Amino acid sequence: MYKALTALLFVVTLLTGCSGMRLVDSQVNSFAPASVPAGSRYRFERLPSQQANPAQDRLEHMAEQALAQVGLTRDDQAARYSVQVSATQRAQQLVLDRPALGWNLGWMFGNGGISVGNGMLFPRLDARTSYWREVGLIVRERASQAVVFESRAVHEGPWSDSDAILSAMLDAALQGLPNPPAGERRVNIEIPR
User: What CATH number is attached to the domain comprising 76?
Assistant: First the structure.
């Protein structure tokens, strides 16, 4: 009975850990030398290096959704502002600094993951991948080409689903528009698992 209850408790713990929300914590730094009023119209502008990048369309679609949440409207014909959006991503394998429990048969918890075993019987389970991402937004007044808003958000975490993470980071980068707080700050955005 004790073993069955322990197994049931373990399964319930795993299932509840896999549901719900996850936190995307970004370090954000924004600058707003001029105000961008809600209801303003914009269009996207691309650098030459972004012209042939197939991921740029997806990134701009995510940025369009984030900009709509802060009251800006995309209008390619009658735009007062132009928006440049960029993203940089890289993955890095990290070796975990703690051993698994038991002789390659135990469970190891921590750092956002669960592993079974470690060593010869289960090779490569002593490492995990960390994803570093940065998004940037620059808003210019088209008539003068003056930058009226600039923001960058950086996040590092274990999740490989870039679209969900980048969308949350764009929301974080735009938080506080048109008058974001000065200086670097941490912005937490919750997203579904």
Answer: 3.30.160.670
Catalogue the E-assigned strands of 111-183: 113-116, 127-141, 147-157
Counting the structural domains of the chain, the total is 1
Question: How far apart, in whole angstroms, are the C-alpha atoms of residue 159 and residue 140?
Answer: 32
pLDDT digits 0-9 by tens, 131-187: 999 999 999 999 999 999 999 999 999 989 999 999 999 999 999 988 898 889 999
Q: Is residue 35 part of a domain?
A: yes
27 domain residue, yes or no = yes
pLDDT tens for 77-133 read 999 999 999 999 999 887 765 544 444 444 445 544 544 544 444 555 567 889 999
Q: Identify the domain containing residue 170 by its residue range.
A: 22-92+130-192
Cα–Cα distance between 138 and 85 in angstroms, integer? 7
From CA 112, how far away is CA 95, in angstroms rounded? 14
- What is the per-residue DSSP string for 46-61? --HHHHT-THHHHHHH
The reply to whether 156 falls in a domain is: yes
pTM: 0.75
SS3 call for 36:
coil
Classify the phi-psi angles of 156: left when phi > 0, otherwise alpha if psi is within -120 to 50, otherwise beta: beta
Higher pLDDT pick, 25 / 6: 25
In angstroms, rounded to a whole number, what is the distance separating the alpha carbons of residues 72 and 183? Answer: 23
